[in-house]
Amino acid sequence: MRILVTGGAGFIGSHLVDRLMQNEKNEVIVADNYFTGSKDNLRKWIGHPRFELIRHDVTEPLLVEVDQIYHLACPASPIFYKYNPVKTTKTNVIGTLNMLGLAKRVGARILLTSTSEVYGDPLVHPQDESYWGNVNPIGVRSCYDEGKRVAETLMFDYHRQHGIEIRIARIFNTYGPRMNIDDGRVVSNFLAQAIRSEPLTVQAPGTQTRSFCYVSDMVEGLIRLMEGDNTGPINIGNPGEFTMLELAETVKELINPNVEIVMVENTPDDPRQRKPDITKAKEVLGWEPKIKLRDGLPLMEDDFRARLQLLHGEWETWLRAK
Length: 322
Prior knowledge:
With about 325 residues, the protein is α/β, with parallel strands linked by helices.
């Protein structure tokens, strides 16, 4: 099986590559422009005879022969997608068009990692796949939210018009090793702050909720969706729901009991609550998450400590050189 993973040098993508490479029948091609991804995430596979890494931006066509396409390419953290919102929209729309064109040409099955952001600031709770969402089309997050909604539309239009085999996963907040340390997402923010002995900055009012899925559970859900018969969309996430204040208190308890928790101003368009209804994933995929937040946070702590120590060492080396 020849498999293309766009965005495969990123956080979730690299963990997906690890799983796919465990199957000796798979040949894996990664296409990534390294905007948010890193070669370091794939270091152990570089040079492997069943692995190929291509520096490529999905807004440009890609000519490869593959059987499956996991289309993950897109900045997923607010800091990165707000930095260049036009590029984010292009990645979601033109990038998805290019991958669908490739799937049509070679007869590949394609899976899109969509997002819980398609539900916007939801008026129903928890959110199931039949909910159409409550999205601000002109907000600072719209490049990502609406971009993914258009990507889903394109997937289904290609499916209906050209018979392309599609799969759509709506993924919820995911955490684990290899997250970008300063990417603005709440788990990585809190963990890095706790390790640095900095105050944990909770955006007001602190009662807004999120649900956090450990990356290995997420990867298992994506693979089951790709290998199954249901087009989706299917929610992939952990329904365990936490307020931001509860999350901060959990990180403080597990990582550094000596840090303070402080309240800061919220960002625009921040959804008030987010929790997946995973009934469909359970029934169709036989999938549900296994790792609880309290068990998952320590699993990423060592990775963060190692990388933060490396960054600190590099900074000291630079200062000495000056």
